[in-house]
Amino acid sequence: MRKTKETIRKESLRILKNQDRKEGLRKSGIIKKKLFSLPEFKKAGLVMFYASKPEEVDTSDMIREALEMGKRVALPRCTGQGDIVPKEIKEIHADLEKSSFGIYEPRQSQEDVRLEEIDLVVVPGVAFDKKQNRLGRGKGYYDRFLKKLPKKTFRAGLSFRLQITENLPKDLQDIPVSKVITD
Fold it and tell me: Could you list the residue range(s) of the whole structural domain that residue 93 is in?
C-alpha cells in the first residue's frame, strides 16, 4: 500500500526528533563539506540558506562560514500570505529574530533580495526521494517559492540519510531540487 504524504511526514519527523543531537551535528558537518565542495556553491555569489530547527540538518555553521568566505547570504522571511521573501543578512545573530513560527528569520528591516540574484538556494525537507523530490512540512511555502525562481538557480536539498525514501507521492505543485546532499 502506498503511503500518504502525511504518513511519511509524521514518520520522518518522529525519526528526526529521536536522532541523537550530537550525531545530527556530526552528520551536519559532513553535509556542509559536501555542499561547500560543489562547483555550484563555489561559484555562487549569493546563497540562500534556511535557519534550521534543532532536528534538521544544522545550517548555523554553514551560514557563518559562507559569510566569512565573503559570500552574500540570504534567509527566508515568511509572510502572512504564505510566501517567502528572501532577505540578506550580514551577521547571523544580529540580523535574525524569532518568528511566530518559532524559527529564526531575518528582521523585517533587512534588505530584500531579488530572486534573480540568488545563485544557490539551500532547501529544507522532512523527506526526500531518490528522484530529488522533497516533502516539506505541508504548508507549501518552499514549493511556491521554488516555482518563482529562475530555472538557472541551483536548488540543494539538505538531508540526513534517514530522511531518504525510495519514492515520495508527488503532486503538480511539488517542485524537486537539483541535488539532495546527505551524510
Answer: 5-181
The cell for 73 is 547570504
Question: For residue 45, what is its C-alpha cell?
Answer: 555569489
Enter the C-alpha cell of residue 34. 559536501
Query: Coil, strand or helix: which one is 60?
Result: helix
Mark residue 24 as left, alpha or beta (left: phi above 0; alpha: psi -120 to 50; beta: remaining).
alpha
Tally of domains in the chain: 1
The pair phi, psi for residue 97, each rounded to 5°, is: -140, 155
Residue 161 dihedral angles phi and psi, to the nearest 5°: -55, -35
Supply the CATH number for residue 135's domain. Answer: 3.40.50.10420
Q: Tens place of pLDDT for every residue, the chain, 183 residues?
A: 568 999 999 999 999 999 999 999 999 999 999 999 999 999 999 999 999 999 999 999 999 999 999 999 999 999 888 899 999 999 998 999 998 778 899 999 999 999 999 999 999 999 999 999 999 998 899 999 999 999 999 999 999 999 999 999 998 889 999 999 999
Predicted model pTM: 0.95
Q: Helix-strand-coil percent breakdown of the chain, rounded to 5? A: 30, 25, 45
